[in-house]
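Re: the multi-chain job from yesterday

Posting the exact lines I submitted so nobody has to dig through the queue logs.
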Amino acid sequence: MAMTEAYGSWTGNWVAEKLQSHREVVSTSLVTPNHVHVSRVEHEPILVGATAASRLDAPILRSVIDNHHDVGFVVNIPKESYIAGDAIALSSQRSIPVGGMGDLMRAISLFDVSSYVSPESKFVERGIAQHDRVRDYEQLADRLYRIERNGLVDVRVAFLNEYELTADHIRTARSRYGTFRMAVITNPNGKATSAAEAAAQSMGCQVYKWGPFLGALNRA
Amino acid sequence: MSRIPLSVCRDIIPPGNLKMTCARGKAAPSLGTKLRLFADSGGFCQKPDCLTELFLEEGGRDLHIAEMAHIFSAMDRGPRAKPSMSQAERGAYENLLLLCPTCHTIVDKAAQAFPDYLISRWKQEHKNRIAAAFGAVTYSTRSAAHAAIKPLLLENRTIFRDYGPLNDYRHNPESEQAAIWSRKVLSKILPNNRKLLAILDANRQHLGPSEQQAFEEFRQHVDDLESSHIGGGPSGKTFPLGMETILVGEGGHD
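And the result, structure tokens for all chains:
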């Protein structure tokens, strides 16, 4: 099945239409059903790749970027989707950011779109990197990290930005990312339901808000 | 001034402690009547130029000095007597109000200067003042009712827009904006919601069918929001969009 059939020949049109309202966008034009040329007010034009996969992995990402060497950003449209680890690695290797529509709207304003990092990832990675107990970390998927600690075993952590973290969110994260020992609510207004905490505990996982998570990194 | 709900009165004042028999005649009101009188008074003497607090704490002991005063005398020959009234009518809620001991004595000893219509007006105006403190006034027109709710809706909307959880700070787990949002919910949004409920409850006659539906959805939203921010419960129902246009224009008859 051609990529455009599998992942939406409508995506380019959809993204082009959404970008019209952006103050940095002069005009858009469809290069292919999944590629949009964007002329910008302040900066050089960019080529945006568009797809609609519930799970964006490396093969799908490759199909968007391999035959178009000047793709500057790949947007995956569905809000409830996620980005697998191999796509994260490929994105990093090729310096082509991948994200949702919100990420694209932020990235469009940058001089160097390839430097875009989602604000949440930026805050999370800075917090982890500056932690005294952390030796190194690796992003395994869009919301899953493996953290190496000095004198303690590595720990897999899922960072979830929900306003109200429910059991369903925990179980969905488990389905997507496999096991993790800590689930951290990165939303400063966020809280977990008692059902979410129970679901996490049943999986051998603990839910934390950010502050207690930093403390938990110091413990076995 | 705060209105004391009947349920609270029942909890904080055991029935035996509602003894307020008028020295100038038995009132024999029911417990419900007594509680309603307490609630109407808001804890203050109902003589407009007095407003003495009726509930006091002295020497570590809670006490009240409220006296149940009759508009028409409990007796055939007392102050403002109306012999044609039955005992039940004399002890009914409509014939009673709460005064401090001084005012009670004055209005009964100088009954000529304090006719029944004057004391009745005190009672109604006292209730109106308490209702007005909550904005629970009944308006004669839709536009007047809308004018009363508009500033409250605007304040809440502004707070939500500028401090609410959809702002970009939601990506920063260490953002202090979250604490500001939480404080404004408790200090502004929740009290404003209570005022909105009181005003709209007092002005239901101006609401059309779809507006009444939106109002009831708003009531559930208020309950869920309080449960979430005060009780730590789940978020529940979001603000119903129908509330944005409630009481706007001459509609209401859809």
